[in-house]
Amino acid sequence: MEKGDANEQYDDDGRVRRTGTLLSASAHIITAVIGSGVLSLAWCFGQLGWVAGTASLIIFAVITWFTCILLSDCYRSPDPINGTRNYNYMQAVKANLGGLQYKFCGVAQYGILIGATIGYTITSAISMAAIKRSNCFHKHGHHTGCHTLNNSYLSIFAVIEIVLSQIPNFHKLSIISIVATIMSFTYATIGIGLSIAKISEGGHSTTSLTGIPVAKDMPSAEKMWSTFSAIGNIAFAYSFCPVLLEIQASPHPSDTLKSSPPENKVMKRASTVGVSASTLFYMLCGTLGYAAFGNDAPGNYLTGFGFYEPFWLIDFGNLCIVIHLIGAYQVFVQPIFAFVENWSNEKLPRNKFVVKEYSLGKLKISIFRLIWRSTYVVLATLVAMIFPFFNSFLGLIGAATFWPLTVYFPIEMYISHAKIPKNSFTWIWLKVLSFSCLIVSLVAAAGSVRGLIVSVETFKLFHSMS
Q1: Cα angle: 44, vertex 49, 54; to 5 degrees
Q2: CA 289, CA 292: separation in Å to the nearest integer?
Q3: For residues 340 and 372, what is the distance between their CA atoms, to the nearest angstrom?
Q4: How far apart are CA 190 and CA 311, in angstroms?
Q5: 336, 343, 270: which is closest to 75 by C-alpha?
């Protein structure tokens, strides 16, 4: 047991007393949810239509909210109020499910982190190219092609990340979270505002209850695959569940829930507030974007040029995306760096190449760290150059994240934690929910992989154009 031995300055685990509240936890959840996933929601509605698009957003929101409620009780083990704290998602899995599941969770989590860094590289380069195209359209007219190769922008992003990757604990700087929050809300709000302006202009964007109709240029098989990929994109928009425990256990006292009232109860209320607010925001992005563009909604509504003017606002929106993802990339890549470096130090404790550091002013430089981190960024960028396809890649990440990390582990941990009897009604329906979500993830992954394959067939290697 942990509780009961704290004093005024420190919590029961010896760390500085946490001061986070329902308000701060709700804000962190909203920040974690709202990100680049909003950019594809209008396209998702174009594939799914009003009925399935709206229903999908609501269903994913309810499932995410429910599993967050289950996960909130796993912050402490074995007792949800007085037990030992689990400081991150993988630690909770290990405490509740044991070593084998812990390894499976590690593979899933690190796989998602790698996928996210590649996806952020793609998205940032597309937004950089969109700024140049927006200025070109403004200068030369909307009927000019203004196409540009993305490789130079991918390279620029890679250079920035190589530099930032050498800064110790860069991802822990509180300013990163603040800037990310401001940027994500800014570009999402710009998208909503531009959609409203386009709707108010009039015109007749074609929308329907079922999305793009089956026709000669949209065979039924193609419609099915696009629908699956759209489901993956929506799943990506809700892929925040794995960071819930980190919100409860952040190393920053003001970011972390205080222990009274009990953290699990506050986090359940915060999950309700955060998911509800985020879903409302997503509904606005998806429905207004679909109403503005109809079935022709672009895959990314700030770079697909459904909007041309005001060009400076489109430029600013895309700049916000780039700034947000520069910081977000580090948040996702630093755990990968730490894992490899800790493993190397453990296996090769006397190898000077691995362990030796050189002082450069106040900065400590490791040749191993410099080479390894730079190599990772370069390899991730090369993959982004080979597969520079925004919607298919987002859909694949969403599909791969949703079932294992948002559904399977929270349900399995809850069953173990709450000692739910096998074959009881609760046990059966939780298993059915998990299996149903697995099927959804598999079809979404299949649609996204198929989209990648089709795109690659017509794609000239290292010649991605925006």
Answers
A1: 75
A2: 5
A3: 9
A4: 12
A5: 270
Instruction: Count CA atoms closer than 13 A to 262's CA, side-chain side.
Output: 15
For residue 400, pLDDT over 90 is answered with no
Pick the closest to residue 334 from 208, 165, 205 (CA basis): 165
Q: What is the pTM of this model?
A: 0.82
Whether the per-residue pLDDT at 436 is higher than 60: the answer is yes
Confidence of residue 412 (pLDDT cuts 50, 70, 90): very high
Q: Which long-range contacts (CB under 8 A, 24 or more apart) does 375-383 make?
A: 376/165, 376/333, 376/336, 376/337, 377/158, 377/161, 377/162, 377/165, 377/333, 378/158, 378/162, 380/114, 380/117, 380/118, 380/121, 380/158, 381/121, 381/154, 381/155, 381/157, 381/158, 383/118
Contact present, 257 and 266 (Cβ < 8 Å): yes
**CA 365 to each of CA 75, 167, 359, 375, 378: distance values in angstroms, whole numbers, following the listed order:** 36, 9, 6, 16, 19
Q: How far is residue 176 CA from its own chain's centroid?
A: 16
Summary mean pLDDT of the chain:
82
Q: Which residues make Cβ contacts (< 8 Å) with residue 114, sequence separation at least 6?
A: 336, 380
- Which is higher by pLDDT, 168 or 54? 54
Buried b (16+ CB within 10 A) or exposed e, 360-393: eeeeeebebbeebbbebbeebbebbbebbbbbbb
Give the tokens for residue 81. Answer: 């109020």
Instruction: Decide if 51 contacts 210 (C-beta within 8 A).
Output: yes
